[in-house]
Amino acid sequence: xxxxxxxxxxxxxxxxxxxxxxxxxxxxxxxxxxxxxxxxxxxxxxxxxxxxxxxxxxxxxxxxxxxxxxxxxxxxxxxxxxxxxxxxxxxxxxxxxxxxxxxxxxxxxxxxxxxxxxxxxxxxxxxxxxxxxxxxxxxxxxxxxxxxxxxxxxxxxxxxxxxxxxxxxxxxxxxxxxxxxxxxxxxxxxxxxxxxxxxxxxxxxxxxxxxxxxxxxxxxxxxxx
Length: 225
Ligand SMILES: *[C@@H]1O[C@H](CO)[C@@H](O)[C@H](O)[C@H]1NC(C)=O
Ligand SMILES: *[C@@H]1O[C@H](CO)[C@@H](O)[C@H](O)[C@H]1NC(C)=O
Hints:
Elements: E1 4-8, H1 20-32, E2 36-41, E3 49-51, E4 56-58, H2 64-71, E5 77-78, E6 89-92, H3 96-102, H4 105-108, H5 116-127, E7 132-135, H6 139-145, E8 150-151, H7 167-174, E9 178-179, E10 188-190, E11 195-198, H8 207-224
Parallel strand pairs: 1-2, 1-6, 2-5, 6-7, 7-11, 8-9
Antiparallel strand pairs: 3-4, 10-11
One 2-acetamido-2-deoxy-beta-D-glucopyranose (NAG) is lined by residues 108-111.
């Protein structure tokens, strides 16, 4: 029997939704690992819509569940319907949509609020001692919901120019969590909390290195499941 894994999306597109390559990498590695996957997203309006050609805000409204359905090839459910008893693990790909739609980190940093269904999903998997996988900016969700947990978003200093958002690590530490420095090819396992994280696009790295790093996260999640 394959492990049953829920994947939670935040829209479709790096600047206002889930990062498409990360979502795809998670799904490819889960497929290779023999997992049975179901995809979810909150049925809420996006915080904003970004024209990805111009990189500027677009004057329109979009729904996170409807946009995420693009990545799920239409096979998706409202996050409010997720039942933890039907799954062995949950994974959150990254992208600005996590920081805009699943929580308000993009605006409020460490003072952010977390969407109630995202919070209750994370709490439910954690209480059931089922693993939680997160990549890119998604580890801030764990940092906010589980003070004291260990996560990585890559490096805490931008020494080599590959980690332009290194200050995210300090914000995580200010929340009372332990930031573990890891390179893009690695993931960190917080064994006590069963939280597995990898930095993905927080690192300016070639796409295949990000893909492989996400692979280590998915494999660790499946091992713990
Ligand atoms: C968080 O809240 C504190 C206290 O209200 C404030 O000083 C700080 O600037 C806020 N941080 C962010 C990133 O909004
Ligand atoms: C998550 O939900 C719990 C239980 O309702 C609540 O105590 C906690 O403050 C929430 N956490 C966040 C970050 O919203």
